[in-house]
Structures are given as C-alpha cells and as structure tokens.
UniProtKB/TrEMBL annotation:
<protein>
    <recommendedName>
        <fullName>thioredoxin-dependent peroxiredoxin</fullName>
        <ecNumber>1.11.1.24</ecNumber>
    </recommendedName>
</protein>
<dbReference type="GO" id="GO:0045454">
    <property type="term" value="P:cell redox homeostasis"/>
</dbReference>
<comment type="similarity">
    <text>Belongs to the peroxiredoxin family. BCP/PrxQ subfamily.</text>
</comment>
<keyword id="KW-0560">Oxidoreductase</keyword>
<keyword id="KW-0575">Peroxidase</keyword>
<dbReference type="InterPro" id="IPR036249">
    <property type="entry name" value="Thioredoxin-like_sf"/>
</dbReference>
<keyword id="KW-0732">Signal</keyword>
<keyword id="KW-0676">Redox-active center</keyword>
<dbReference type="InterPro" id="IPR000866">
    <property type="entry name" value="AhpC/TSA"/>
</dbReference>
<comment type="function">
    <text>Thiol-specific peroxidase that catalyzes the reduction of hydrogen peroxide and organic hydroperoxides to water and alcohols, respectively. Plays a role in cell protection against oxidative stress by detoxifying peroxides and as sensor of hydrogen peroxide-mediated signaling events.</text>
</comment>
<keyword id="KW-0049">Antioxidant</keyword>
<dbReference type="GO" id="GO:0005737">
    <property type="term" value="C:cytoplasm"/>
</dbReference>
<feature type="domain" description="Thioredoxin">
    <location>
        <begin position="70"/>
        <end position="240"/>
    </location>
</feature>
<dbReference type="InterPro" id="IPR013766">
    <property type="entry name" value="Thioredoxin_domain"/>
</dbReference>
<dbReference type="InterPro" id="IPR050924">
    <property type="entry name" value="Peroxiredoxin_BCP/PrxQ"/>
</dbReference>
<feature type="signal peptide">
    <location>
        <begin position="1"/>
        <end position="21"/>
    </location>
</feature>
<dbReference type="GO" id="GO:0008379">
    <property type="term" value="F:thioredoxin peroxidase activity"/>
</dbReference>
Length: 240
C-alpha cells in the first residue's frame, strides 16, 4: 500500500541527488540557503521595504499564532484534499499506516518556499526510508501548484488546501497585517483563486500512526523553515 501511494503521489525525482560525500562537502543546509537568500534581498531592497516586512513579521508573531496553533501532543486534524493529478488523499488513511510529514508552503511566488521544496525533494528518499510519507499542502490553485513544481524542477505533488480550510483547523492561518497587505493584493487572488488576504505559516508537522503530532515547526518569520535533517530525525523518533 505504501509503495502504491508513493507511486501515485510522488514521481521519480527530476533532480540529481548528490552522493553522500558530495552532499556533505558541497550542499549547504536549508537554513544556510534561506539565510543567503535573505541576505541577498537585504542588500538590494530599499530600507523602508525591509522595515515594512520586518514590521509585518513582528505583528504576526505578536498575534500569538505560534502558540495557539496545533502543537506537539495535540491530535492531528484529518482532511481529504486533491492534487493537480485529480487524486484525492485522506490524511488519516495515510498516517494509520505510518508517520506522515505535513508541510505547508505559501506559493510559487515565494522564493523561500521554492528553496524549501527543493530541499525536501532532495531529502524525499531519506524521509521515505525512515518510514514516512511527505504530504505538501498549499493554498495555490492546482494548476498553479503544478507550474511551481515544473519551474522548480521538483516532482512532489502539492495538495490543494482550498481557501486554507485545513490550515485554519491547524490554527496556522493569519490575515496579512495592513502594513504589508497591499504588496500582495495583485498576487494572492491570481494564485489562490480568492480575494482573502490570508497566508499560512510555513508550518511542518510530523504525525504518528496514532494521529498525534510528534513534531511541529512553527515560525512567524517566513524566512525560517524546518530543516530536513530535523524532520528526518523526528520521523525516526515517531516510528520507535
């Protein structure tokens, strides 16, 4: 059953996976890649724009969302979602067979999301070898999610969290603060198919076969993401 699901939702990787020696010596961690991306943006962007984004992050953090969202020890929320292939996935059916990694990304317009997607693609074999299934969720319309995958050269199929319905049940959705909402007014409707000025935290959860959350990465700063090695370690702990 696991192999069938894997074939259904994850195609053979389009990326060249480095050898262990190459990965150790040449591949930076996801955190390093994200920091480099953020530093590059900081060098080019006007100071007032940087200040606006920083203020937006602070307001999201001050809302308390990182603490009010689903946490380790909570029951996971079930849901049935569809990918761009038309296949539907019921989460509880997957985690009843073994750990599940749930990862939300904001959209293909987000460079930090694309870095995370590539890093998780490169770690997909290790995640599956550890005994888990990776489920990627996004508010992007299915056709947009497919474009994101093709542009990033990944084969992970993202499931459509329509109107962020599941993310809201996990408590990870926030309304864009007024200071930054205007920057997204022409972008989100095009990608998500609605006018809501809402985004999810770039959250990552590990859910064990009992439907309990055993790992949760929640950060109001969109430039911070779960490190694949930490996710793999959490999966291994979940199967013990």
């Amino acid at each position: 059953m696991f192999q069938a699901l894997t074939r259904s939702f994850f195609l053979t990787s389009l990326l060249a996976i480095p050898t262990m020696a190459q990965e150790t010596s040449t591949t930076p961690t996801l955190s390093e890649q994200l920091a480099e991306k953020a530093a590059g943006f900081a060098k080019q962007a006007p100071a007032d724009r940087l200040a606006t984004f920083a203020k937006g992050i602070s307001r999201v953090r001050d809302s308390g969302i990182e603490k009010s969202a689903k946490q380790v020890g909570d029951d996971a929320v079930d849901g049935t979602l569809q990918g761009w292939t038309g296949n539907s996935v019921t989460l509880s059916k997957l985690w009843s067979e073994g750990p599940v990694v749930l990862m939300w990304y904001r959209g293909g317009w987000c460079p930090y999301c694309n870095l995370q997607l590539r890093a998780m693609q490169q770690s997909l074999d290790k995640i599956e070898d550890a005994g888990a299934k990776l489920i990627v969720l996004t508010p992007e319309l299915p056709e947009r999610a497919k474009e994101t995958a093709e542009a990033s050269g990944i084969s992970i199929v993202a499931l459509h969290d329509k109107d962020l319905a599941l993310a809201k049940l996990y408590g990870i959705v926030f309304e864009l603060p007024d200071v930054i909402a205007p920057m997204y007014q022409s972008r989100l409707p095009k990608y998500n198919g609605n006018d809501a000025m809402e985004l999810p935290l770039s959250a990552t959860y590990v859910i064990n076969s009992s439907g309990k959350i055993t790992y949760a990465f929640l950060d109001a700063d969109y430039k911070k993401r779960a490190e694949p090695s930490d996710v793999i370690a959490a999966v291994k702990a979940a199967v013990k």
